[in-house]
Amino acid sequence: MQQNGSNGYTEGTLFVKAIADFLTTKFLVLSTAPFFITLVVSIVFLYYLSGEFFDILNTVAQISQNPDTAAAQSELSQFAKEYPIISTIIGSFIFKTVAGTLFYVIGGGFAILVSILFAVVIIGFFTPYIVAQIQRRHYPNIERKATVPIFDYIIFVLGRLALFLLFFFVSLPFYFIPLFNIVAMNAPFYFLFHTLLTKDVAGEILDKQEQKEFFKRAKWRIMTTTFILYLLSLIPAVGIFGQVFFVIVLAHQFFREAAQLRNVQIKSATA
User: Fold this and answer.
1) Which residues does 10 contact at the CB level (< 8 Å), separation at least 6?
2) 212 lies in some domain
């Protein structure tokens, strides 16, 4: 990999430095917060959805076996009465076993993606502390210019969530095309993962004008880094336990990019 500028770095050196920082006690302890919060929310979310899913299957099974039950007054019962063969199949043990397996496989994968985004939101509350620690350890002469008002940040997040939902629904038809479905499922989540993480970290280091120049000149370097981090986040548990590590990696990259923007030589002995 090529170095970038007089304060040059490679993606490899970023990750080496980030790992060394991450393995310190304070960052390992901090990693448990988004991990446990996200884990609990994800389990509750999946448990609730699975309960609703199997309730529907059980209701269809009861109606197919006894159309005169109280449950038969619902709209679901009309479907069961009109299509008794389908209802019998849906209510069978084999179908529920297969459907349940698919639900947990597909639902589990989707839950991982949702949990990653939830963890990204949670880690946003810890980003100022993490960035401050990285500055103190490695870049004491690189000034932090945190200038993003909370209201502007909320508007930014809501706007990106709206684009994410639009992107998500547009990509739904491709979910049924082999190979394309992998890209279609991950593209909207990577978009939100990338934008939220980079905005959180950049907003702690660069002013508005610097951010515009920074994202223009270093767009592909940033996307390379966040894409690697996103791939790592798809590994179960890493996506929620590694959020602190992800912020550390980007903090190193953004401090070094800030040094180039400002023509400041990094003087830290550990940089």
Assistant:
1) 1, 2, 3, 4
2) yes
- Please check whether residue 118 lies inside any domain of the structure: yes
pLDDT in tens, 46-77: 666 655 555 555 555 555 555 555 444 455 55
> In this predicted model, which residue has the larger pLDDT, 146 or 189?
189
Indicate the DSSP class of residue 66. -
When pLDDT is cut at 50, 70 and 90, the band that residue 2 belongs to is very low
Q: How far apart are CA 214 and CA 102, in angstroms?
A: 44
Place of tokens 């401090």: 255
Question: What is the number of structural domains in the chain?
Answer: 1
CB 154 within 8 A of CB 78: no
Q: What is the C-alpha to C-alpha distance for residues 180 and 183, in angstroms, rounded to an integer?
A: 5
Query: Taken in order 33, 36, 40, 46, is the CA torsion positive or negative?
Result: positive
Residues 133, 26 contacting (CB under 8 angstroms)? yes
In this prediction the pTM is: 0.70
Would you give the distance in Å from CA 238 to the centre of its chain? 11
The DSSP H or E segment spanning 217 is helix 208-217
Band (pLDDT 50/70/90 cuts) for residue 13 is: confident
Return d(Cα 50, Cα 215) in angstroms, integer. Answer: 42
Q: Would residue 153 count as lying in a domain?
A: yes
Query: Is 233 domain-assigned?
Result: yes
How many angstroms separate the first and last alpha carbons of the chain?
Answer: 18
Instruction: Answer whether 190's CB lies under 8 Å from 116's CB.
Output: no
Nearest-10 crossing angle of helices 25-65, 75-82: 60
How far is the C-alpha of 130 from the C-alpha of 110, rounded, in Å?
29
Domain residues for the domain of 203 are 11-261
